[in-house]
Amino acid sequence: MRGRDLRKLAEPPGAHTTPAAQNARSIPMTNPAETEIKARIGVHGRITFAEFMELALYHPTGGYYTSGSPVGASGDYYTSPSAHPTFGAALAVMLRNMWEALERPSPFHVVEMGAGDGLLARDIAAFIPVLSDQLAQNIRYVVLDRISPTPNLAPDTTTTNRVAATGVPLRNIVGCMLSNELVDAFPVALFEVRDGIPREVYITLQDGELREVLEEPNTPELIQAVAGVDHKLPEGYRGEVNLGMATWIDEASQALDRGFMVTIDYGHAGSDPYSPHRPDGTLRTHRSHTAGNDPLSHIGAQDITTHVDFAALDRVGGESGLVGIGIVSQANLLGALGINRWLHTLRRMELSQPDRDANMMAMRDIIRPGGLGDFVILVQQKNTETHNLDQLLPAEKEDLPPPPLLDPAHTPLLEGSYPHATWQPPQTWNTP
Question: How far apart are CA 232 and CA 404, in angstroms?
């Protein structure tokens, strides 16, 4: 699945749009997901928003993630992996240090959950042999997604396994469990405050059209969440409760025998998930690089996401045996892992000016404040001797290999934003 970066609104970290999008994802007028949603409402009178979101995103034949490729210039958003391969290269540096911290186990498993098109796996796997031939011989990369991942073959120096599953059906992993923009697309329960009382949002039919209706809360997680709010929520306040987060992280912890858990997404790390500064909630839709807030339209043809509560994710991880060792911004962690040095190296590499500009822009984009750089990275450990994130960073004076460069698999951000910057004059005559 993954990812979604550009599609964010101004409020969420990572908010930006790209003029590169030219083709909107299309879907048949009669969508199987919408048909199923209306059929269930016909039987029960209404369904929870969480059930609606599950069908809209994951229906086997009509869900958003089963009916097309949402990432890239022709999709609905781009992600950090699709922006530039140094995102994967920086994570490869941290994975190498994790392998060292675990005293070089063989095999060293990396399980990427919600891997989508496999581009991040490809970029990580391509950079591992550049860092360490020995790690390249021992790493085993597992691409895990509830939808059969699109093949994006990694170098022959690694063994990459692709697993389609709704959960985490693995055990005895020694290594790292990794996800990028996965948790934000888990189905959520919605509530809205009316007459001072939180009401749950349900979806029903009125004159053949899908509509919201507010009724007495019936979702246990939502009831528990609003009961724990220690301040008065203003009239009209809307909020979400992520229903899959606790089960997912518990399954990941059960799969991990010894090693690390790295969760990358957009969201907030504060202790108050229902801040008065977010009275409209954080649920957003994304379609053709345009953010919106109408989840009942374009069913199966638009993404639906919410902010991740990283403080809660760290807490429930702790209840499942994972010990948090750092919550940090993407800009800060990637900078510490080498991207700032790679930006300097890029200036000295023998590249054409358009290629240098394209790589420079994309590398800066994934650490840009107010954009992807504000994404949050939570690192947790289980049964290791690593108690601080600094232990997984390269030494300041370590010589890092040159950065990987853009290739056709990545989103052409410079071309999309400044078409004239990559224009080359036509060859109209032969030169001696």
Answer: 50
Backbone angles phi, psi at 173, to 5 degrees: -75, 130
- Whose tokens are 């186990």? That residue is 105
Structure tokens at 88: 């994967």
Mean pLDDT of 355-365: 96
- CA-angle at 257, arms to 182 and 270, nearest 5°: 40
Which residues make Cβ contacts (< 8 Å) with residue 15, sequence separation at least 6?
A: 8, 9, 291, 370, 371
How far is residue 375's CA from residue 283's CA, in Å, rounded to a whole number? 16
DSSP state of 94: H
CA 89 to chain centre: 17
Reference 4, options 418, 358, 411, 331; nearest CA is 411
To the nearest whole percent, how much of the chain has pLDDT over 90? 74
pLDDT, one tens digit per residue, over 123-156 is: 999 999 999 999 999 999 999 998 765 554 444 4
DSSP single-letter state for residue 154: P
User: Distance between the two ends of the chain, CA-based, in angstroms?
Assistant: 52
Q: Tell me: pLDDT of 20 over 80.
A: no
Q: Could you tell me the two tokens for 346?
A: 């890029």
Residues in contact with 425: Cβ distance below 8 Å, sequence separation at least 6, in sequence order: none
Q: Which residues pair with 143 in a beta bridge?
A: 112, 162
Cα–Cα distances (Å) from 74 to 66, 236, 318, in that order, read 16, 36, 40
> What is the residue-wise DSSP string for 102-126?
TT--SSEEEEEES-TTSHHHHHHHH
Contact between 29 and 305 under an 8 Å Cβ cutoff? The reply is no
